[in-house]
Design brief:
Layout (H helix, E strand, L loop, with lengths): L2 H24 L2 H8 L3 H7 L3 H25 L4 H13 L12 H9 L4 H27 L9 H22 L2 H17 L1
Helix pairs in contact: 1-2, 1-4, 1-6, 4-5, 4-7, 5-7, 5-9, 6-7, 7-8, 8-9
Length: about 190
């Protein structure tokens, strides 16, 4: 990696938590310079504008979450176990290096739905990839006889995502972690019933 690429990566790594906590609109140039210790010229010498930094920060945050889930799924020998890895990760999220500020999909989707089309598109693509990954595991699980052949992989995948994202939103909004635990128990039951 050359110096310019290292500098861009540094900017992304340092601003990603800020964007995830404060959102696009709430993150100022001062926030970015404070997070990186760089000047405005250094930041905008590597990125055309705030949009580019925000999009790169979102992708960085998504990769963090994806890597956590991938590692937990890799420990499982069954497709049911791979789905239950989501329950483990989101029930014990404090044990994992999640992005500061929580779920980047939830944070970005709620802010960018009417205000930032490019970020909205990134969040939508992240959900679509997530859905496809879960549906793929369910399809393979059906073939292996782990799940009922009547299971609709896409519908089940969307239900799993909705339960996880809803769980995060409710727990974050209310501050009641026992709500998170209750929803994760429901998700576990759902996976066992597939």
């Amino acid at each position: 990696m050359n110096k310019a690429a290292r500098t861009k990566q540094f900017i992304v790594e340092k601003t990603a938590p800020v964007f995830n906590e404060k959102g696009y609109a709430g993150t100022s140039l001062t926030d970015m310079t404070n997070a990186t210790g760089l000047t405005k010229g250094s930041i905008y010498g590597n990125f055309a504008n705030k949009d580019e930094v925000a999009l790169a920060a979102f992708e960085y945050n998504i990769r963090q979450v994806t890597n956590i889930v991938r590692e937990e799924k890799a420990k499982q020998d069954t497709y049911r176990g791979k789905l239950l890895a989501y329950v483990h990760v989101y029930t014990n999220f404090l044990k994992h290096p999640f992005p500061v500020g929580g779920c980047p999909i939830l944070n970005t989707a709620t802010e960018a739905d009417d205000t930032h089309p490019a970020l909205k598109q990134c969040a939508a693509e992240a959900v679509s990839k997530w859905k496809d990954s879960i549906a793929h595991d369910i399809t393979l699980g059906i073939r292996q006889g782990e799940f009922s052949p009547q299971t609709n992989p896409e519908q089940a995948a969307l239900t799993i995502i909705a339960m996880i994202e809803g769980c995060i939103m409710i727990a974050k909004l209310t501050g009641k972690m026992h709500y998170r635990n209750a929803i994760m128990q429901s998700l576990e039951t759902f996976v066992h019933q597939l």
